[in-house]
Batch of 4 targets.
Target 1
Amino acid sequence: MINESQVKPYVRIMDQQASLYEYFARQYGLQNKSLQLLLWVANYPKSHGSYVTQKFLAERTYSSKQVVNATVKNWRDKGYVELLENPRDKRHKLIRLTEAGQAYADSIIQPLNKIEKTAIEVLSPKEQETLLALTAKYNHALKEEMEKL
């Protein structure tokens, strides 16, 4: 049986990692949640060939609909995103980066990608594989336990 003293160091490390991303986001005038949303809006279409909806963003980032809506509205007002009709569900608009939005996203995501790549390269390929597998397994179990609440 694992006791609390075995869990706490890992939780502290994960908290520190979350704080590091929050620090990075602030360097670009963002809240951590806005950075998460931007990563989804920018990266999901590249990897899946489709745009995201506000509902999708709320589910994937565990954000309230209000937070997602306020962020998307702010980006729309700045000309970074446009909302498109969703042929599959007229109630949920698709979010697409504009040319200005893509430039904005790239100015943030490219430095972050470089930082993450450099950081993970301190681990051997086997260590990287183990880190990814164990973190995914832990996150899955954590999610299942939290959903029981």
Target 2
Amino acid sequence: MRVGVVKEIKKDEYRVALTPAGALELIHRGHQVVVETGAGVGSSFADEAYVAVGATIAPCDEVWAASELVMKVKEPLPDEFGRIRSGQILFTYLHLAPAAELTNALVATGATCIAYETVETDDRRLPLLAPMSEVAGRLAPQMGAHSLEKPKGGRGILLPGLPGVAPAKVVVLGGGIVGYNAALIAVGMQADVWVLERSVDRMRELEMMLDGRITLEISNRQMVEEAIANADLVIGAVLVTGARAPRLITKDMLKGMKEGAVLVDVAIDQGGCFETSKPTTHSDPTYVVDGIVHYCVANMPGAVPITSTRGLTNVTLPYAELLADKGLDEALRASRPLARGVNVHAGKVTNAPVAESHGLVYTPLAELIDGAVS
């Protein structure tokens, strides 16, 4: 199969979908790999590194036109819509639930669009989302701490405090992968960390994993309001697979928060978990609403591309190999997790939460590809 790796054009996105080592694995299996000129530079992979393992370097138009399977990191932008063609496989993060224009554009292409974030195992793990959730979770306290500095518009408080000076209070909404990693780093920074989580079983796990160094509370509207009222930093870390993130903090709730407190919305890719959230970039990461600083960068792991690109390739490569080795139909029959990742196929929306978000007709994948059961 001809596998294409294109350069990301999203602002401040430096990751690439495949490392030279990953390209070598595909080439060793008999596949062709075509990489867009300069695609890996942001992750410190020169074109020569891909050529050295047998890949071909080509301009953007040629990569899109020649590839049966196109690997990306972020969702296609409008300039890329016209490059996607019927019968092509697009394998990338999509986050379609809050993106009507993108969803409709992908439906119109007739391509098969597989979203990393909805590839889901039978035990409900999200293997292709996990490493980037880990990165974003670990970055969140770091970015929040920076945003709390007075010159950045924040309260002017140091997360760990000092002997005789209380540490900052960090509230993490959600105890999944993002929430755990955010709490782990915030605890390491010696903050006073609270995690709000809906599952009592998960709270027991977090209690053990973090050695009792955090305060755990059940997540409900009243508890959220009480917790954020005294918070210096709030990290939104909630996820509903494939669906729009629930809005846990409304605009009215901001009035009860401390002036200069910071909200970090890690769920912004899925629409955000704060009513006042809107996507920002690494170049211009924050804005203020009612005295509360909002950090809502939509591609947080893009800030650390050397780490993120390697972590991403580690988990996506086995699925790319499966697609390349077996072809689309057989790969989807062979892998239920991969089949769950298909959001759009042949002009139909095959992910129920995405269809519901946009009022579109949901078509089960099994109706389109016999034997592909998700």
Target 3
Amino acid sequence: MFYWLTAFSDGGDLFNLFRYITFRAGGAFVTALVFGFVFGRPLIDLLRRKQKKGQPIRDDGPATHFVKAGTPTMGGLLILSALMFSTLLWARLDNPYVWIVLLVTLAFGLIGFADDYAKVTKQNTKGVSGRIRFGAGLLIAALAAFAAASFHPAALTNQLALPFFKDALLNLGILFVPFGMVVIVGAANAVNLTDGLDGLAIMPVMIAGGTLGVIAYVVGNYNFTEYLGVHFVPGTGELLIFSAALFGAGLGFLWYNAPPAAVFMGDTGSLALGGALGAIAVCTKHEIVLAIVGGLFVVEALSVIIQVLYFKRTGRRVFLMAPIHHHFEKKGWAEPQIVIRFWIISLILALAGLATLKVR
């Protein structure tokens, strides 16, 4: 919205600053962060009054989790509110990629909210049927992937960009939309599975989101793409503003989610943020790089898949408990120890993902 102030600029005044994506990204970060600090405590107090018993705790989970009983959930509302408000304020609202990512985030947030609401009101951990959640997610992802393909340059439409290879493209044709669906829904559910300890999911989401924001800025700038030999996707640079807002909103939430958490993100936040990461990757043609940058989420999801398949086949377990962060809890690792080490791994993977821009 602030971008339209450039209409009053003569090219050498304050209004001219709003032309620059980097300036507006900084504004989006600060706005989202301040929003989180200002509205965080009132929202948590409201959630505590409305939920009374808070998020139900799994009976088969680690014993240390029972001390968290009574902690409210749906803290993702704080993240999403700050993220939406800040992005709408600072991004160009005539940019289709901004709207694709925003709507995917909001839609997955609504799915997560419905699930959290069912869990809180029924006081059980089942929530909305998995089939309904998955089906709704696939529909949203299909629309987003189709829209992204429609706005991509003709030379990149329905193409899969391969990292590490200059100008390498794989034509997926009609399979691009199903592939985009897998990326977006997979990212949403992988982040959801990771959200099991205080602060565990939000920092890796911020790191991955910030990394994808840098990638979006690079692939949306012709000079950078020419120098680095990556594919130019006009307009994606605006997604840096969304990513900056995500980072600010995440910090604002982490202030209250740091151990011991005053509020849980819930599916409201985890599904929305995971969907957002997947949507950014599809828009910027960096779907494979998302698997590197978000490698922690991939491992968390794979640990569940491996555990379920192996148990059905043999009746035994590979991990003491899945997702894998619970395995380390069962081995005696303290919760902060797991969280911080996983943060470090996320940072290393983010640097590896950024390296794909240069290594070609």
Target 4
Amino acid sequence: MKDYKLSDGSGQFSCKGCQRQDNKLNTYDWLADVPDNRTYTDMVEVQFKNTRKGYYKNSNHLDLVKGDIVAVESSPGHDIGTITLTGKLVEIQMKRANLRPDVEIKRVYRKARPIDMDKFEESKTKEHETMIRSRQIAENLSLEMKIGDVEYQGDGNKAIFYYIADGRVDFRQLIRVLAETFHIRIEMKQIGARQEAGRIGGIGPCGRELCCCTWMKNFVSVSTNAARLQDISLNPQKLAGQCAKLKCCLNYEVDSYVEALRKLPSKEIELQTKDCTYYYFKADILSGEITYSTDRNFAANIVTIDGKRAFDIININKRGEKPESLIELIPQAKTETLTDLVEQESLTRFDKRKGIHNKKKNRPFNAVNNNKQNDNKDNRSYNPKKIQKTPN
């Protein structure tokens, strides 16, 4: 666990709700900037290694913010975790997790001390070696199980062994051997393939981090029917994720495709015209376009029409009539030539105006002088000051 804090120790960044967090299943606190949000409730959300979270009561009224490392009550001893959520949003998360308020809730002891962190780091260094050794012990006992991860408690007195198995496993003998080997309290927890992928992590084919290790908490069953509804090729290599199960993202857009399929005719309906019969070939479900072919097995004389046109042809066929073609023939209307009055589409519209303004500049020099002389003559002949008086 890394401690992302400012120099003043507040543990907050520019935005309280979305500050950096080096943990999985980060929750955006959209109530973080509400006044008195942290003091609304004493409950806090604490996250441990990978995706394990718990809810604890701040009975000592410590000033806890997101990112603080705390020591919490465990059985036995204490555990070390990171505060990931405070305030009113914690109660909402507890309701989503179906936690009853009458259940006894464990407490937050204190903020982690240097001696607590030293003990915690020492325990973390043993996890990988313990996992490899426990796998060898399980293999020697001929148990059909795979130990995927080991998590030590903060004080080092207990360890959780996460394992995967297809059926039920009698691991009582395994617990006795592990306790004698590592001299700690053993807890076995069975997880599924999707949960193991979430704990290990990785990058999906979309280029982003796996959903199961970033935000997904509950795993819903995925079937190949979701791929059929979205008209996806049933290729096991492309449909399977890193957990070797069907990708969870196949369920994300199923509802949109089901709604769009209601606006399209059935694949079994054939469209008849005067020339031939057309069969369903493929469809662009979201755009509402269907491609028909004159052969059932391969593309031949394919024609693409929208769903409305397909329903129109179906209704025509029901009346015992056949249209000329699948594409609706629209009579061409006589188009009148329109004049561009303001010449917005003309590339030379500025050249014409430029010639008008520069008309005087383009006149010859002599013509300009002659005009000036003529103007002077006229002015001289009509100048009243220069009129000579004649003697009587």
